[in-house]
Write a structure and sequence with these properties.
Structural class: alpha/beta
CATH class: Alpha Beta
Order of helices and strands: EHEHEHEHEH
CATH architecture: 3-Layer(aba) Sandwich
Shape: globular
Helix content: 40-55%
Radius of gyration: 13 Å
């Protein structure tokens, strides 16, 4: 996964540091944004391999950002929702708007890497 370009939208500074450390330790190139609006701006300027998207953020939440990315930008980047709690209704809503997978914090690093690999492989076909 060395060189994998990961875009992260997360408003909590501590979570940003943790996620950044975990992904960089695996050799990924991480771009951090503070909300969905910043993530959309970053996606419009550069390609990324995967987007890790917090669902609950100020300015623009992950739900709204995913809708813009899928409908207005017509971008098929794999999107993984990362949130403090995932209820079945949340997962259903995520899938309906085009988010590929949902994981809850804290997360198992190896499982997330497997998920990222699977989503990227599926996206290339």
């Amino acid at each position: 996964m060395t060189g994998l370009k990961i875009l992260v939208a997360e408003d909590n500074k501590l979570n940003q540091k943790i996620v950044n450390y975990i992904f960089q330790k695996k050799g990924a190139v991480v771009t951090m944004t503070n909300n969905g609006r910043e993530a959309i701006d970053a996606l419009s300027q550069s390609p990324y391999d995967v987007l890790i998207l917090d669902l609950h953020m100020p300015v623009m939440d992950g739900y709204a950002a995913a809708k813009v990315i899928r409908t207005e930008m017509n971008n098929n980047i794999p999107i993984i929702a990362l949130t403090a709690s995932i209820l079945p209704d949340d997962t259903d809503e995520c899938l309906k708007i085009g988010i590929n997978a949902c994981i809850s914090k804290p997360f198992d690093t190896d499982k997330v890497w497997d998920l990222i690999n699977n989503l990227i492989s599926a996206n290339k076909h």
